[in-house]
Structures are given as C-alpha cells and as structure tokens.
Amino acid sequence: MESLVYHRHTCRLCDSPKVPLALKLTDCPPVDAFITEEKRSVAQPRFPINLYLCETCGHGQLLDVVSPKLLFGDYIYTTASSPGLVNYFRDYATHVVSKVKPAPGSRALDIGSNDGTLLSFLKAQGLSVLGVDPASEVATSATAAGIETLPCFFNSQVGTELRRTRGDFGLVTANNVFAHSDTLGDMADGIRALLAPNGVFVFEVSYLLDMIENMVFDFIYHEHLSHHSVKPLQIFLKRHGLQLIDVERTASKGGTIRCYAQLAGGPRVESPEVPRLLLLENEYGLYRLETYTAWGNRIDAAKVRLNDLLTKLKTEGKTIAGYGASATGTVLTYHFGLGGVMDFIVDDNPVRQHRYSPGDHIPIVASTALAERKPDYLLILAWRFADMIIARNQAYLTQGGHFIVPLPEMRVV
Ligand SMILES: [Zn+2]
C-alpha cells in the first residue's frame, strides 16, 4: 500500500540537508476534510504540520508530505464559485498584461488553472490561452466552456512537450501551486523549457515575512508545503535558468508576493524592489531560527490568553460556538486545543453546512442557527475576516451575543 505521508530530509528549493525545525505546531487531520454524517464513526488520522527552515537558502517549508490523494480526494472547490476570486483574477489579468506587455496573440499558460477564470480574462486581453490542471473533471468542463485545459500535473516533461507541439509562451502564470508542489525544481525546468526569449513567468505565493508579522501561523498546513520569501526564490530560480526580475507585495491572504521571472540573461531589467526586499528580509531575521522561536513564543502567549478566557466563560456556564469552518480554522482549533470548547461552528458556505469538522467532528451549521440557539459567545476561527463577519451579524450582537477574535491580538466585541 502506498504510504500516506513521507518525511523528506532535504530543502525543497536547494536540496541542502541542513533543514532544522523552526516552528512546532500540533498535528492535524487533513484540514479541509469536512466530513458527512455517514463518515462520523471513522477516525481521521493526524499528520505533522511543523515548519522547517533551510540553513543554506533560508526557505521555510514542511518536510512531512501527505499524499495528495488523501488531501484532495474530496475536492469541491472551483474559482467561479467564489465571487471575490473572480474579481481578483480580473484585476490580476489586467495588471499583469499591462506590466508584461506580451505581444498580441502570444501564448499564455496557466498552471493549476482550475476552471479557467484567470485564462478567460487573459483571453479577453487578446492572448491565446491554455490551462493545465490535474483535477480532471474541472479541466474537462473548462475545455467545454472554451478554455482548453490539459488534465495533468505540470512538470518538465509536459513543458518540453508543449514547447515542441505548440511553440513558446510569452506569459506563464501559476498561483498558489508554487506553495503546493513537492517537486518545484521539475516544475521550474518545465517553465524554462517553454518560456519565450522575452517571456515572463508570474506566480503568487503567500509571503512568510507577512505571515510571521501578522500571526498567520494557521496558514501552515499539509497542502502548503512551501512558505516563500524572496531570497530563497531568487536562488532557486537562478539554479533553474530563470531570473527573478520583480516582486510586488499585496495584502491578499494575510500577505502575498507576486513574483516575475524571465529566462536568465533575458531582456528585462531587475526592479529595485528585489534588492529592497532582500534587505528587508535580512534585517527582519527571516533566515534565522531565533525569529521563529520568538514567533512560537508569541503564538504560545496568544494560546494561553485565549484559553484563560474560554475556561473562565465555561466556568460561568456560558455557551460558545465557532464561526468560519475553514482549513485555517482547523489548524487554529488543533494548535490552540479548542476542539472541546465549541458546541457547533457557523459557516455561510452551503457546501460546508450539515458536515462535521475534521477530526473533532463538530457540527457545521448555517448562520440562521444563531437566532435559534443563541450562543453567548462566538469564537471567530476565520479571524482574518473578523470585521466582515461582525458587520454581517449585527443582529446577533444586538440580541446580546459576543464575538471573540483570537488573533492577532485577542479582543472581545
Ligand atoms: Zn534551501
């Protein structure tokens, strides 16, 4: 039988064997495995989500790799089902095309293209588009909807084959897949194989520096194998014949960097933003273990503060529910030990409702349950969206309910 998890011993970006533990987190079940009623009797195994730091290149990463089959087996997510993401990709396409200025009619490839949302906007900008996505049903329906999508994982073999059969590509995009892949070197080789001489590879990843600064440790889970920063990426791209030429920071997902790369020796000039961020990372101590020890201490302090409050409320006989059934919520629940605290979890996404949380099997219900069950306190698991959640649930507040926002600084509303 194929093993469900393996532990690698070298850095995912530079192959160095010096990759010490930087941040120890509590083992979790697959964080998105919200299960149905029938599966409640089946125990869900837990796997490590510890963060390691490469001493050689400074890359932050998970070394325990859980089988993608286990993680993505029940994959139900498409971009178009998320209205915020559709707008995001519309702006993304406009911005990238105006910046990169690919020749009209030149080819664009999106790796991990999902339902083709980004490509449809790139197509509208005059590019000839192609998607690659391993979720075969999503790929098939994207193709049927007019965005040709190959149902496979992108690797060097696929890249070489595409170059041979289709020609070169003026624009290659990859969003989030760069955090998910365990074989990034092979993916980079595939991109180099098909990139046009003046082509640009654009990818977005969450930014480790922002994660530390903003306490977004709950973004560390099995699917997110890499937590990127600029220096390790620059070294990695260079090893694979690519050159990092620009980096943009955005606030998306608690802090994101959008990176631009060209073939080594390409025609574009490096932006001053690259050396500026390298300096910032160095001054921040992003490549030093002490920074992660200090981060771990801040996380521990937040855990103690929250649990003190919850214990006090429970002693007073108060009822507590959660808000936001998400992957990050699972990490927070396990690392902060909140499984026994919440009677139920409210979520606005109908796909999650009537299911049960990973591992603890806490029932997920619609927000209409707030009026019926009137919990005294609502612990916002999706804390990065706390302001939006509170604004949407004013009725709960006026009826005497309270919100607990656990992070970045605990507050009660
Ligand atoms: Zn490394």
Structural class: alpha/beta
Radius of gyration: 22 Å
Overall average residue pLDDT: 93
CATH 4th-level superfamily of the domain at 317-412: NAD(P)-binding Rossmann-like Domain
How would you sum up the global shape?
globular
Determine the fraction of residues in helical runs and give it as a percent range: 25-40%
β-sheet strand percentage? 15-25%
Sheet with the most strands? Answer: 7 strands, mixed
Bound molecules: zinc ion
The appropriate CATH architecture of the domain at 317-412 is 3-Layer(aba) Sandwich
Main β-sheet, spatial strand arrangement: 8-7-6-9-10-13-12
CATH topology grouping of the domain at 317-412: Rossmann fold
Please report the first level of CATH classification, the CATH class of the domain at 317-412: Alpha Beta
- Uncertain ranges: none
| Number of extended strands | 19
The number of helical runs is 15
Tell me the span between the first and last alpha carbons: 50 Å
